[in-house]
């Protein structure tokens, strides 16, 4: 017994004075069920019955929904509703889907992972057409054709009043030029411009905050000058200033990107625009209690006309991280940067123009330019990016000559040529030798070492030590030795001694 027939029987028997136990026996319905409807008015039962019918209608989709929940336990009821609409064209109410999903989780023991919730402060609503907030997000998604993963970057935009959203994805981090083009595309999508733009102190937008004086990147500064937009730059570590777009990015990542397989960037962006029409802008917003698309129809009239035009798109534009050896990696090859770049720039932007690789700072200043290399594993290095070792050597040589005198120049120059990797140590030892044995003694040792072609400061020190005790030996002796430990007298023995020793060993 179900539906209105069961409810009518319960109420009729109740009016006749039957107890819950007696009614249960008569109509063969559990006492808990009868107790549930015992004091329920007809209008409340009608609403309950409608909800039950809706849940029953969703029960036909239990297998796919159960598969989704088992495959992705963190899947939200909102995303289940969106997938039902996308894949099966089922437009069920949010509350109904939540009850249906909750029932499946309880029935099959599928727990949802708890995520920490952020607290937000309520603020007054802004006038229509006044403000647009923007932010960036990144998420790794799985490929539809393999087990590989792809990192996707999204630039998201949302009008503060209507919550009307737009965004665009790409496979590389955004640059200043990419963002400017995305902003123009957003304005074209919305049919106008806001008065104010709100954004973070991202490196592609802001170079530095000089006590409140914001210094923008070259490309973004040019965009602001052309469009005359007001700006509101959030303080560092203060996302509350643009809490609406923060929620939008989380919504995009959690509802659209989560559990979705990546096939192609164009397909992904088309699917995203369909999602915006269906869910992002087509679902009732929890704060405004209206659909963003409906509220946007009113706000669009308050937008400003579009100023300016998007910059020309480069054939290939991307960013790279600067390595510790002042190089960047592109297509399995290393390309050099000026010395010291690693300490001043963490990332750089790349552009490919006529088979040449141009490397720019985040403010669009040219750092280096190289011919593209077709090989793999090569180091492409400009001469200007090499360490000026010769200059350093010359500076050390001149400093030592000025300290010791011009008489030492020829010998010191020969040392630098013979020991290029140890110039600093060799020159330092020559100075120390002069301090220990005197300049005149060291000059005599320099003459001796030059005649013998002993191009080593250690030989000079030994020669100076010998000269300080006695005169130099004949030229046949390469190096004078003052230590007596090497002068050993050898004892001479007759051969009979060795013959007797050998005979004893045989016996």
- Write down the CATH class of the largest domain: Alpha Beta
Q: Which strands sit side by side, in order, in the main sheet?
A: 3-2-1-4-7
Radius of gyration: 42 Å
CATH-level-4 superfamily name of the largest domain: Ribonuclease H-like superfamily/Ribonuclease H
**Beta-strand fraction estimate:** 15-25%
Helix content, binned percent: 40-55%
CA distance, first residue to last residue: 122 Å
Extended strand count: 14
What is the 3D form? elongated
Number of helices: 19
Which architecture of the largest domain per CATH? 2-Layer Sandwich
Q: Number of folding domains? A: 4
Determine the structural class based on helices, strands and strand pairing: alpha+beta
Largest sheet: 5 strands, mixed
Low-pLDDT stretches: 474-478
CATH topology of the largest domain: Nucleotidyltransferase, domain 5
What is the arithmetic mean of pLDDT?
81
Write out key terms for the chains shown.
507 residues, alpha+beta, Nucleotidyltransferase, domain 5, five-stranded mixed β-sheet, four-stranded antiparallel β-sheet, 14 strands, 16% strand, elongated
